[in-house]
Amino acid sequence: MTGPDPSSLIHELLTGDAPFALIARDASSVEVLTGTVVDVDLLADIPLIDGDGRPREVLALVPFRQVRERGFVCHDDGAPLRCLVVEQRIPLPRAEVVASLPPAPVALADAGFDIDDEAYADIVRRVIADEIGRGEGANFVIRRDFVAGVDAEPRVAALTWFRALLEHEKGAYWTFAVVTPGHVAVGASPEAHVSAHDGVVTMNPISGTFRHPQGGATADTLAEFLRSTKETEELFMVVDEELKMMSAVCSDGGRITGPHLKEMSRLTHTEYMLRGRSTLDPRDILRETMFAPTVTGSPMQNACTVIARHETTPRGYYSGVAALFTPNGATEGPTHDLDAPILIRTAYLVDGRLRVPVGATLVRHSDPYGEVGETHGKAAGVLGAIGAIPRDSAPAAAPEADPDAPVAPRRPLAEDPAIAELLASRNERLAPFWMNPQDPDGSGPFAGRTALVVDAEDRFTTMLAHQLRHLGLDTRIVHWSEATDAEVDAADLVVAGPGPGDPRDDASERIAAMRHVVSRRLFRRAPLLAVCLSHQILADQLGIDLVPLAQPHQGLQKSVDVFGEPAAIGFYNTFTACVAPGTTQRGITIGPVTALSEPADAVSPVPTAGLDIAVEVSADAGTGDVYALRGPAVASVQGHLESILSRDGMRTLERLIAAAL
User: Fold this and answer.
1) What is the DSSP string of 588-653?
2) Each residue of 218-261: pLDDT tens digit?
3) pTM score > 0.85 for this model?
4) Can you tell me the distance from the alpha carbon of 386 to that of 388, in angstroms, rounded to the nearest whole number?
5) CA dist list (Å): 518 to 181, 384, 469, 541, 547
6) Active-site positions?
7) Tens-digit pLDDT profile for residues 177-198
8) Which domain of life is it from (predicted)?
């Protein structure tokens, strides 16, 4: 490189063979990063320290296959965890960079989706029926790819598309071009997945997609979108999923602010911001948050399994992240800050083939053709910006308008009073606990006692643990496969957690393990709180019927009676415990029940063949759906008291723990 002259620098990038990245993170500048490329196997291998022990800057492209580090399944295409070890960073004026980039459009050949519209609509139907309808999760993102041939030199294509995105896309978190041997990635990501700066971790869940009508969005058309139950619940579900991650990496659990609008050229999204404090290495933060539920689904582990069932090809870098690790000068704690946008709205060029992966978030009331349309809109956002398809035309001026009059900038739609009111009204439904500052201080009504949370593969347990600590409990989480009888017996309170799947599945090792935990605590009259899936397992062991719901309650807020007190609670269930409708009232007692068999225990067997227990049932008088149970040393709840949808979650959680203890 000869110097910071934009024209000369861009010319060297176009004609040379060195790897580079261009990143625009604000409205005035573009950062040029050059260096050497290193491919590594694991996030822990990202080379943040040089051979002399000095911190260095690294830009890493993290593929979706890295979910293997968390034990999740995926189609493994061998996409490398590619690191650009930065040797030089040059900030340049954005306008001068744009003027120096190639302007001529890049022609595409044989363009179209790899999965046609009808086939994608069929996938949507199957996911709703076979996955959401069978309790495998609340929402899932299934992708398809827009593909085309490109007869252009990769560097020319990359810089041409980068210029077009800078000129025609707006609202992006990062606009970037990364050129490394054999691979080009150019995109305008709207969404920061995770960042860490001076110990503050930030996540930015974005969901709900409003496709602008011809001529642009208006307050009236946007208001109709904001009133959509489907779009609202879709956003709440991804906020819940990212709060699970925040609770795993932040001592204070994470606080939500918003909602906000993310306005782009063809699309507008709704979003929240989550913030908390952490002392973890940024590579560990990245591992614990792989990957965003907005591009995978929830619960995360099962979402990866569902993706592998319904996507027949690997994802490559789609739904991974571009992670920039920058030395922060700290002498204690993490030596690097992290800035990591999600790799969406990105075009990839490999071996002369363009690929633009896009996905739709599928929920219980998704319309198959509506989700088809969403993928078209997302692909068009990238393709239109880079000039691969016609761009939207600006709305025509009114006939009486003065063509020489200055044009006033359009006010952001979020500033419209009606839009601002609609956005603010969403928070009236949410749990104040997650919207206020949090930092457990060890006090609380149950201080001095211990809790063991058994994770049944839904990281809602991290949020539950955070709430338990606020209530004073010294809390630890253990995976269902690692929960020993000794530690289950030792805890003052065991919380049997939620998870995906059918509670009646006799073939599932996970379900069997959770049954063992529940029955073991019951037989020892040891305090137990069972949540969602474990509530259903408890009900089944007490002889209460389990039935599938006619319509899954995934991400649904309901106001229910919990032993004499109304509570707004979030539900994520496909199955329910059920007693006879019309014959139950609040607090009715059923039992004694003798349907249980003593759990196997070679260490300290209990010489009892059965268990007599009387429990109270809190159920819907009309349907018989059981919302909560309580009895001697036991309590359970069908809903997720830890969810942002549980406005009365903390109060109800405290009441149920008090009953169990």
Assistant:
1) EEE-------PPP-SSS----S-----EEEEE-TTT-BEEEEEETTEEEESSBTTSTT-TTHHHHH
2) 888 888 888 888 788 888 988 998 999 999 999 888 899 999 88
3) no
4) 6
5) 54, 55, 22, 9, 20
6) 532, 640, 642
7) 999 999 999 999 988 899 999 9
8) Bacteria
